Amino acid sequence: xxxxIVILAAAxxxxxxxxxxxxxxxxxxxxxxxxxxxGLADAGIISGQFFKEGEAVKKGDAxxxxxxxxxxxxxxxxxxxxxxxxxxxxxxxxxxxxxKSVSQQEMNKAEAEYNVAAADYDIAVQQLANRQLVAPFxxxxxxxxxxxxAAVAPYQPLVRLVDVSRCxxxxxxxxxxAANLQLDQAVQIHVDGGAVLPGKICFISPTVDAAxxxxxxxxxxxxxxxxxRPGLAAQLIxx
Length: 239
Known about the structure:
Elements: H1 2-21, E1 25-38, E2 44-49, E3 56-57, E4 62-66, H2 69-98, H3 104-129, E5 132-134, E6 139-144, E7 151-152, E8 159-174, H4 175-178, E9 186-191, E10 196-204, E11 214-222, E12 233-238
Antiparallel strand pairs: 1-8, 1-12, 2-4, 2-7, 3-6, 4-5, 6-8, 8-11, 9-10, 9-12, 10-11
Helix pairs in contact: 2-3
């Protein structure tokens, strides 16, 4: 009798494992890996546009540019002051070392004036660089909100940039079922239209929504050729 009970218990455990191993289907949507709206910290007038909507950009590419004539002049002025102060500093240093015809105090003053001029030049160079809207990552422009000639306020949205070389699947699953999922678990992403792509789970919400009883799940998959357009409906299927 005891052996019979043990056999039944083992069979029940095997059945539970089989049920846990059954594939799970989660409905959701695809999203770009990065989706950012860019702006500038400075105000000004847009004087240049170097890319069009839909075009790909690389990290560091300038997309838009504000009028920068004053900043360009300021860089040239600060550079001239820095070069002059460097000449004075070098000559003062030479005199102090070779002839002792200048005091240490004069040497310190010349060095301080050169250091201040160099810092002012660096600030001017940065202010000039701030007149350009530069891509913070490689991606594709989906929207340019203002064109050349338009006035720009600080931090005003100007360009929407997305990275679709990788994509997320985002869906929701019942809280109890989420316990059967694991981070880095291999899954398949079935995208609306027929594409099937390998992916892995990268996020499982540690909480369950009290109203719906659902937990958020995200999986990441490669999309180097851009064949999948984020926003399409999809299903996550566990393996």
